[in-house]
Structures are given as structure tokens and as C-alpha cells.
Design a protein that fits this description.
Layout lengths: L15 E9 L2 H17 L5 E6 L3 E4 L12 H7 L3 E3 L6 E4 L3 E7 L9 H18 L5 E2 L5 E4 L2 E11 L2 E9 L22 H4 L6 H15 L4 E5 L19
Parallel strand pairs: 1-2, 1-11, 3-4
Antiparallel strand pairs: 2-6, 3-5, 6-10, 7-8, 8-9, 9-10
Helix pairs in contact: 3-5
Length: 248
Amino acid sequence: MVTERQAQPEFVSDRPLSAYLLGSLDFDTLLALQRRLVYDTAGDRDSASLILCEHPSGITVGREGSAVHIRPNTPALTARDWPVRWVSRGGGVMLHQPGQVACYPVFPLDTLNLTAGRYIAELQAVALDLCREFSVEAIPDPERPGVRANSRRIVHVGVAVHNYVSCFGLVINVNPDLSLFREVRCDGDPAPMTSLQRESPLRVRVTTVRQKLLELITGRFGFARVSVFHNYPAALPRPTPHALPHAS
């Protein structure tokens, strides 16, 4: 587990973050946007980006995943309109659906003084802090990157690193249809997943979780300035004012 002292790397205090709050985003569009941001960050290692979005229903399979973890056959997947994509991130199978927050940090790990292992630990720490914000007791998954609440996975962690630039990241179950997870063994786990709404005594909204997650990532990774974008056209968008407080 990451201790409080370990959770405070020596980051550059004036490093900016471009945050893209994009609502529902199909996975192919996400992949194209992420590739562009990884390319940009590899060329300018003082830059960093964060994508926060939801996805329509579909399945991704990471490097540790297997088709045997997907119960519906091909015709059933087609009937449900659940595309299956094999991706280069860590972790196994993940079912994406509305009611989740998908979080994709594109960070230059070398200039942030982070190894890949330390970065994954920091992401898990962010997920634990997020659960606490909604009065959910959670622990790091002892078997694989991720977070559990009441013995069920509530946050999936799966990352990739290219040229010391991170991509992919977290998927947080806010209030998705949990019954659908019985059809897919996410990360190979036979138990169904849970959600913040199921575990929390509070009313949990996707928009609130997204905002809180942005604040937690900004604080933990030491970003002094945040520019928020609500779309990503072909031309570089202009930032909108953002009320997130930052230390001077």
C-alpha cells in the first residue's frame, strides 16, 4: 500500500495539465485522441493531458485477458452491439458501459520522476481516495491492479507506457448496470463487480465523481494549472475557465 509520504513525489510545481471532459465517447474515437496526445506529450515532455469520459457498451481485452472470460458468443455480442477490441494496456477483460467514469492520464513519467510500478500504485491511491470521498471502504486488489469494496472489484486499473508516456488508466464503476457484469469476467474475476452507488450511503452522480477525480489527480501528481476542454475538434481547442483551486 502507498503510504502518505510515498504519495508525494517531487513534481515540478508549475506543470500544467490539459483536462478533456468529453461526456460519452466511442472507443475508437478515444483511441485516436489518446494516440494524438501520447504523440504530443512524447515531443513536449513538459505537457500532460487527462481524458475523462464515458463509453457506450463494449468490451476491451488487455494483455492479460482471454476470450474465455467473455460468456456471450459472437452472434450474441453482435445482437447486443457489444464490440470487442484487443488493446495494448495491462489488465484483462473489461466491460465498458454507461454509468462508469473512464480516466486516461497521458503523463510523461520520466519528467514526473515515476517508474511504471510507482505510477500504478499512485493511480490505485487516487482510486482509494475517491472511494473515501463517497464513504466507501475500499482496499487495493491483492491479486492485480485495481480496487475492491466488500470483496468485489469497483475500480479497474490497466495502463500502458510508450516512450515513458502513460496511456489508458482507470475505469470507475459509478452506477452502471451491475447485472451485465455476470456476462463478462472482468480481469478474470468470477465474482460480479460492484459500484460506488451500491456501496455508498450517498447519492452518487457521474458528473460529481468526474469532478472529484480531476481534483484528486491534480493534487496527487502536483499540477499547478489546469485547462479544461469540453470537446476535441481537429484544431486545438481553447480552454474554458475552471473553478478548481490550486496552491500558489
